[in-house]
Fold this sequence. Notes:
This protein has about 325 residues and is α/β, with parallel strands linked by helices. Helices cover about 30% and strands about 30% of the residues. The protein has 2 domains: about 5-115 and about 295-325, Medium-chain alcohol dehydrogenases, catalytic domain (Quinone Oxidoreductase, Chain A, domain 1, Alpha-Beta Complex), CATH 3.90.180.10; about 130-265, Rossmann fold, CATH 3.40.50.720.
Amino acid sequence: MSQYKALVVARAEGGVSATWQRLGEDSLGEGDVTLRVTHSTINYKDGLVLTGRLPGMRLPLVPGIDFAGTVIASKHAELAPGDDAILNGWGCGERRPGGYAELARVPGDWLVKRPAKFTNAETMAIGTAGYTAMLAVLALEAHGVTPDKGPVLVTGATGGVGSIAVALLSKLGYSVIASTGRPQEADYLRALGAGEIIAREELSAPGRPLGKERWAGAVDVAGSHTLANVLSMTQYGGCVAAAGLVQGLDLPASVAPFILRGVTLAGIDSVMAPKERRVRAWARLAADLDREKLGAITQTRPLEDVVALAPQILAGKVRGRIVLEVA
């Protein structure tokens, strides 16, 4: 293929523009594996790129921090033409070409072979959101937060990370408390396995340095006051996995939960996580994620819809996960 179709975000008067263009193969990123992209998805970070709000992005840029596809050329020992593989992060869609295109080229060490349990579409229903949720669950387990220790809170529970975190934790036997600003989605969250639902407003305002112990652990996607309140109400010896910044980058907390209750704050980085951690996360997703629940939280759209979806995901109006088909 001498040319391929891609979405290009560039600077424009008053912000950025996003246009579909035909690019030559010299526009592909550097790497030893070339893939025909079959599916992608949209994450909060993609919404920031498409609206010109992500700090540090390099324009012009092909967005899309996730993609799945079939190898069409490879100089990498572990990947051959015909193999299906997944990419999550590594700066793609931020500082180098991403997945909103018919072709992608990346270093083979950045790719994870598609688990046999999932189709390419299902891997993008999971995407960075689900992979991040699994990293958070692994962090809770590593810090001794087991189902017998008490309930686990998930903030932003109707979003991508939150929805999959609720599904994973409930499948693993945890009692899940789901926090959401969308009370009308209570039935949706209960179907995923949430046993209790609380309003986002209970956690999003400034709170006390130390509150009543309510949960053994948490997966937080909000940051700011929400994360501070989550920490203040975590049980002795508990762990909170911080995986997002939807409310803000700040953390207006005190040291009280750490020095009086021995609480651990575990940072979850999905972008530059080493390959062995990625492979483990995807293996656990294959073992622990209910495919029926994954299907229930997923909608499929053509890739061309992604520009219109960007403001919706930033406004918190996207429930669950969206798979983008690359025609």
